[in-house]
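Known limitations

Structure tokens in this collection are predictions and should be treated as such. Users comparing against experimental data should check residue numbering before alignment. To illustrate the layout, the record for S9 family peptidase is reproduced below. The input appears on top and the generated tokens appear beneath it.
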Amino acid sequence: MRPTDLEHLAVPGMPALHGDLLLAGLSTPHLEGNAYRGVLWRAGLDGEVSRWTHGERDSAPAISPDGRWVAFLRAETAKDRPQLHVIPAGGGDARRLTALPLGAGAPVWAPDSRRIAFTARVPEPGRYGFPTEGGERLEPAEEAPRRITRFDYRIDDIGFLGDRRERLFVVDTTEDPAVDPVPLTDDRVDVGAPVWLPDGETVLVVALRDWGAAESEETDLYAVPADGGEPWLAVRTAGSVDRAGVSPDGRIWFVGAEFTWPGAEARNPGLWTATLRDDREPAVPRRLTDAETVHCAAAAGAPVLVGDEVLVAVLNRGAVELRAVPAEAEAAPLEKLRPVAGERAAVRAFTVDGERVAAVVATPGSAGELVLIADGTQRVLTDWSKPLRDQGLRPVEELTATAPDGYGVHGWLLRPEGEGPHPVLLVVHGGPFAAYDWGLFDEVQVYASAGYAVVMGNPRGSAGYGESHGRAIVHALGTVDADDLLALLDAALEDPGLDASRVGVMGGSYGGFMTGWLAAHHGERFRAAWSERAVNAWDSMVGSSDIGWNFVDAYIGDDLTAQLDRSPLSHAGRIRIPFLIAHSEQDWRCPIEQAQRMFVALKHNGTPVEMLLFPGEGHELSRSGRPRHRVQRFEAVLEWWSRHL
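Generated tokens:
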């Protein structure tokens, strides 16, 4: 896979299934237009796959319960905001329902197949191109100053929050286009993940505890009357809720974590259930899955009741599996959850129609294909990643190792073509409570195709190996996690086809932290380093990062001595190998000052150092940045390693 083969990276979104209609949005980077194109595709249950819409950016299909209509999001051009549209399920012209200044969120049909709930950010007058009360449109530099009173005033990839709260809307598709619908929630808190109750009169949303009265990591489920009225607390969680589903009998199923204070970090999200009370007092949920062994993944979809089981995605040693949880389970461990799909794969999304499941499943050779699961069998319906495979992908080998303290470590190795000996890249993921998985990873494929053996793994601190595995580095970053990574590298280097004298280390975010840490403490192991969107200085991260106000205390602690001791910047004087710092100018997760401080320290130190800055990008550059910048980044990575390895 070459950098420009990024155009062949086809990524499907959440599917929609009703009867014989199965739809999914497919997003692909477009280098010439420097944007992402999106189209809705239909996968016939007979195996025929066809383009279903012809917009520039179509996504998020949702089929009405009666099967007559499809709601979806469409942006007319790459610069436009997505707006809500509906189209007959049998085909025809799409009708726009919204014209919101900052666009609309994914549609959710009411049981009556007439109304649609969604969320959207609503700007204050005079901001983000929205006219002032006097009708004047201001340039960003002309806007009034923002008065900040909270820690949580901004978030990476979105920006400021208080002046454009995400609010709940309900539109009636039988009425004239609602170009200016009225929000049902106020501007005190962001709400998200709407889901209808079976009565069709109430929408559940996720919001910060106490309706956002104070900064918190805790979230609850609130009920909002669809015709307007005061929201009420429906479910008080044990910590957080990510995504909820509701079964026809009115029971609520949701993915959320239990927080044991003083820390909420690295807590396995589990499957919970609750039943709303008639007196509108908050329901108390019950946990169905074991906190230590089961890590539920809400990003793949809300839990769904099918018969006497609940389907939910679960992280398990680098796989994202669809598992069935007994509906009456009590803290069931992983081995008690029936596997449905995702062995040595990653279930990115799933939906249910009756007892049939449509899932998007990624594998080492695919960014995601539609799979129909019915009657105990699985059928792969699409082959969207074939053009990318035709360009050449390297196979993935499972890799295990033992750390110095006897702890088992899990990861993967990608070998380039030929006998070698090959130069080696140790690649470290971000998070840290995240994980590499079995799905296609474009970055390592580019590196392996360019002639590098790639070692990647999930050291202690990662997700999907038990909660204690994830919590092992709380207040201990750079200890056993570094040991695990070096153990994986050593295991790979036992292969005579890999050249132990030509090894580089690279990573982003937490992986960038680890790159700097390893370069300072184990620099003799590496020829050079590539540190991207890194945490380099915990003391300034506290105030400059969008999450620094709680993340640093959670993972490092509030003691300044500890913060400095765990900062790669404090050990920059020990770094002698060539060091490249890649950063985005609009990164608010790990702000640019993290890169600048490290660059100046290394420059003063006499270390061969370079800094590569990407304008107009945030923390997610390598995953969802502008396509040309993603290609330019690939080219810069390969040029750097060709120089030093």
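For this record: The radius of gyration is 24 Å. The chain has a mean pLDDT of 96. Please report discrepancies through the issue tracker.
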